[in-house]
Design goal:
Elements: E1 15-18, H1 24-32, E2 40-41, E3 58-59, E4 61-65, H2 72-90, E5 96-97, E6 100-106, E7 112-116, E8 126-135, E9 142-144, E10 147-149, E11 159-161, E12 168-172, E13 177-179, E14 182-197
Antiparallel strand pairs: 1-12, 2-4, 3-7, 4-6, 5-14, 6-14, 7-13, 8-12, 8-14, 9-14, 10-11, 10-13
Protein backbone atom coordinates (compact mmCIF):
# COMPACT_ATOMS: atom_id res chain seq x y z
CA UNK A 1 0.00 0.00 0.00
CA UNK A 2 1.41 3.44 -0.92
CA UNK A 3 2.34 5.94 1.77
CA UNK A 4 -0.68 8.28 2.35
CA UNK A 5 -0.65 11.90 1.24
CA UNK A 6 -3.00 14.80 1.81
CA UNK A 7 -5.26 14.96 -1.23
CA UNK A 8 -5.34 18.77 -1.43
CA UNK A 9 -2.59 21.02 -0.07
CA UNK A 10 -4.66 24.20 0.24
CA UNK A 11 -7.63 25.18 2.36
CA UNK A 12 -10.53 26.44 0.24
CA UNK A 13 -12.67 29.24 1.67
CA UNK A 14 -15.83 28.02 -0.12
CA UNK A 15 -16.83 31.58 -0.95
CA UNK A 16 -16.09 34.04 -3.72
CA UNK A 17 -17.43 37.02 -5.63
CA UNK A 18 -17.04 36.72 -9.40
CA UNK A 19 -16.82 40.40 -10.32
CA UNK A 20 -18.55 41.58 -13.50
CA UNK A 21 -19.25 38.00 -14.54
CA UNK A 22 -22.23 39.27 -16.55
CA UNK A 23 -22.16 42.31 -18.84
CA UNK A 24 -24.77 45.08 -18.80
CA UNK A 25 -26.22 43.73 -22.05
CA UNK A 26 -26.53 40.25 -20.56
CA UNK A 27 -28.21 41.68 -17.46
CA UNK A 28 -30.73 43.44 -19.73
CA UNK A 29 -31.47 40.12 -21.44
CA UNK A 30 -32.13 38.54 -18.03
CA UNK A 31 -34.38 41.44 -17.01
CA UNK A 32 -36.36 40.95 -20.24
CA UNK A 33 -37.29 37.45 -18.99
CA UNK A 34 -39.27 39.12 -16.18
CA UNK A 35 -42.26 39.57 -18.49
CA UNK A 36 -42.46 35.87 -19.39
CA UNK A 37 -43.46 34.47 -15.98
CA UNK A 38 -45.85 35.26 -13.15
CA UNK A 39 -44.48 36.31 -9.77
CA UNK A 40 -45.45 34.64 -6.51
CA UNK A 41 -44.67 35.27 -2.86
CA UNK A 42 -41.28 33.94 -1.77
CA UNK A 43 -41.75 30.92 0.50
CA UNK A 44 -39.60 29.36 3.21
CA UNK A 45 -38.69 25.74 2.51
CA UNK A 46 -36.87 23.59 -0.03
CA UNK A 47 -37.95 22.97 -3.59
CA UNK A 48 -39.28 24.93 -6.54
CA UNK A 49 -42.62 26.48 -5.65
CA UNK A 50 -42.82 24.64 -2.32
CA UNK A 51 -42.70 25.80 1.28
CA UNK A 52 -44.67 28.16 3.49
CA UNK A 53 -45.08 31.92 3.12
CA UNK A 54 -43.77 33.60 6.27
CA UNK A 55 -43.34 37.35 5.73
CA UNK A 56 -41.53 37.80 9.03
CA UNK A 57 -38.73 35.54 7.78
CA UNK A 58 -38.99 36.18 4.06
CA UNK A 59 -40.79 38.92 2.19
CA UNK A 60 -40.09 39.01 -1.54
CA UNK A 61 -41.57 38.31 -4.96
CA UNK A 62 -40.17 35.40 -6.96
CA UNK A 63 -40.56 33.64 -10.28
CA UNK A 64 -38.73 30.73 -11.89
CA UNK A 65 -36.71 30.87 -15.11
CA UNK A 66 -36.89 27.43 -16.68
CA UNK A 67 -34.45 26.10 -19.25
CA UNK A 68 -35.80 26.72 -22.77
CA UNK A 69 -34.65 28.32 -26.02
CA UNK A 70 -34.97 31.82 -24.56
CA UNK A 71 -32.84 31.12 -21.49
CA UNK A 72 -30.42 28.56 -22.96
CA UNK A 73 -27.61 31.12 -23.27
CA UNK A 74 -27.97 31.93 -19.57
CA UNK A 75 -27.83 28.28 -18.52
CA UNK A 76 -24.77 27.67 -20.70
CA UNK A 77 -22.90 30.71 -19.38
CA UNK A 78 -23.69 29.95 -15.75
CA UNK A 79 -22.67 26.30 -16.18
CA UNK A 80 -19.23 27.36 -17.45
CA UNK A 81 -18.87 29.88 -14.63
CA UNK A 82 -19.78 27.28 -12.00
CA UNK A 83 -17.16 24.86 -13.34
CA UNK A 84 -14.40 27.45 -13.00
CA UNK A 85 -15.51 28.74 -9.59
CA UNK A 86 -15.97 25.23 -8.20
CA UNK A 87 -12.43 24.28 -9.23
CA UNK A 88 -10.89 27.42 -7.70
CA UNK A 89 -12.92 27.75 -4.50
CA UNK A 90 -14.91 24.60 -3.63
CA UNK A 91 -13.75 21.37 -5.31
CA UNK A 92 -17.17 19.83 -4.66
CA UNK A 93 -18.60 16.83 -6.49
CA UNK A 94 -21.45 18.54 -8.37
CA UNK A 95 -23.83 17.36 -11.07
CA UNK A 96 -25.91 20.38 -12.16
CA UNK A 97 -28.05 23.22 -10.91
CA UNK A 98 -31.72 23.92 -10.26
CA UNK A 99 -33.86 26.34 -12.25
CA UNK A 100 -33.03 29.99 -11.65
CA UNK A 101 -35.10 31.89 -9.11
CA UNK A 102 -35.66 35.51 -10.11
CA UNK A 103 -36.17 37.51 -6.89
CA UNK A 104 -37.42 41.05 -6.32
CA UNK A 105 -37.21 42.96 -3.02
CA UNK A 106 -39.22 46.20 -2.85
CA UNK A 107 -38.77 49.06 -0.39
CA UNK A 108 -42.53 49.65 0.00
CA UNK A 109 -42.78 46.85 2.60
CA UNK A 110 -39.05 46.81 3.50
CA UNK A 111 -38.83 43.38 1.88
CA UNK A 112 -36.04 41.10 3.10
CA UNK A 113 -34.94 37.52 3.77
CA UNK A 114 -33.79 36.81 7.34
CA UNK A 115 -30.99 34.40 8.34
CA UNK A 116 -31.31 30.95 6.74
CA UNK A 117 -29.35 28.20 4.98
CA UNK A 118 -30.11 26.78 1.54
CA UNK A 119 -29.04 23.20 2.24
CA UNK A 120 -31.44 20.81 3.91
CA UNK A 121 -31.18 17.42 5.62
CA UNK A 122 -33.99 15.93 3.57
CA UNK A 123 -33.48 12.40 2.28
CA UNK A 124 -33.25 13.20 -1.43
CA UNK A 125 -30.88 11.93 -4.14
CA UNK A 126 -29.29 15.38 -4.57
CA UNK A 127 -28.52 18.26 -2.21
CA UNK A 128 -27.68 21.92 -2.63
CA UNK A 129 -23.91 22.35 -2.31
CA UNK A 130 -23.13 25.79 -3.77
CA UNK A 131 -25.48 28.78 -3.73
CA UNK A 132 -25.13 31.68 -6.15
CA UNK A 133 -26.65 35.15 -6.44
CA UNK A 134 -26.39 37.11 -9.69
CA UNK A 135 -26.78 40.85 -9.01
CA UNK A 136 -29.29 42.43 -11.43
CA UNK A 137 -29.56 45.93 -9.92
CA UNK A 138 -26.98 48.70 -9.71
CA UNK A 139 -26.38 49.23 -5.96
CA UNK A 140 -26.86 52.99 -6.42
CA UNK A 141 -30.50 52.34 -7.36
CA UNK A 142 -31.57 51.06 -3.93
CA UNK A 143 -30.77 51.45 -0.24
CA UNK A 144 -30.50 48.61 2.26
CA UNK A 145 -30.69 45.12 0.77
CA UNK A 146 -27.12 44.24 1.73
CA UNK A 147 -26.08 40.60 1.49
CA UNK A 148 -24.66 39.05 4.66
CA UNK A 149 -23.08 35.62 5.04
CA UNK A 150 -21.44 33.81 7.96
CA UNK A 151 -18.06 32.59 6.71
CA UNK A 152 -16.08 29.88 8.52
CA UNK A 153 -18.40 29.96 11.52
CA UNK A 154 -17.61 33.57 12.47
CA UNK A 155 -21.14 34.50 13.55
CA UNK A 156 -20.03 37.79 15.11
CA UNK A 157 -18.18 38.88 11.97
CA UNK A 158 -20.42 38.12 8.99
CA UNK A 159 -19.31 39.09 5.50
CA UNK A 160 -21.39 42.06 4.35
CA UNK A 161 -21.56 43.31 0.77
CA UNK A 162 -23.58 45.31 -1.70
CA UNK A 163 -22.11 43.91 -4.93
CA UNK A 164 -21.96 45.66 -8.26
CA UNK A 165 -24.23 45.03 -11.22
CA UNK A 166 -23.24 41.76 -12.94
CA UNK A 167 -21.31 40.36 -9.97
CA UNK A 168 -22.06 36.81 -8.79
CA UNK A 169 -21.72 35.75 -5.16
CA UNK A 170 -20.90 32.06 -4.63
CA UNK A 171 -21.00 30.42 -1.19
CA UNK A 172 -21.43 27.06 0.50
CA UNK A 173 -25.16 26.29 0.76
CA UNK A 174 -24.71 25.36 4.43
CA UNK A 175 -23.52 28.89 5.32
CA UNK A 176 -26.12 31.08 7.09
CA UNK A 177 -26.93 34.19 5.06
CA UNK A 178 -29.55 36.90 4.68
CA UNK A 179 -30.70 39.91 2.65
CA UNK A 180 -31.23 42.98 4.79
CA UNK A 181 -34.47 44.99 4.38
CA UNK A 182 -34.61 47.19 1.28
CA UNK A 183 -35.42 50.71 2.50
CA UNK A 184 -35.45 52.56 -0.83
CA UNK A 185 -35.79 51.47 -4.46
CA UNK A 186 -35.97 47.90 -5.76
CA UNK A 187 -33.35 45.12 -5.55
CA UNK A 188 -33.40 42.35 -8.17
CA UNK A 189 -31.28 39.22 -8.28
CA UNK A 190 -31.09 35.80 -9.86
CA UNK A 191 -30.48 32.91 -7.47
CA UNK A 192 -29.29 29.40 -8.33
CA UNK A 193 -28.32 26.29 -6.37
CA UNK A 194 -25.65 23.90 -7.62
CA UNK A 195 -26.52 20.30 -6.77
CA UNK A 196 -24.54 17.19 -5.98
CA UNK A 197 -25.24 13.71 -4.66
CA UNK A 198 -26.63 13.77 -1.13
CA UNK A 199 -24.06 12.84 1.52
CA UNK A 200 -26.28 13.22 4.61
Amino acid sequence: MPYPVQRYARVLNRFCVATKAFTKDEIEKILDLEDLQKFQKGAVGAGTGKGQVNKKTRDSEVMWIMHDQTSDWLYQKFSSLVSAVNYDHFMYDVDGFENFQYTVYKSKDKQHYDWHVDASNLSTPFERKISATIVLTDPSKYEGGEFECVLNGRVDEPFLAKPELGDVIFFDSKMPHRVRPVTSGIRKSLVAWVMGKNTW
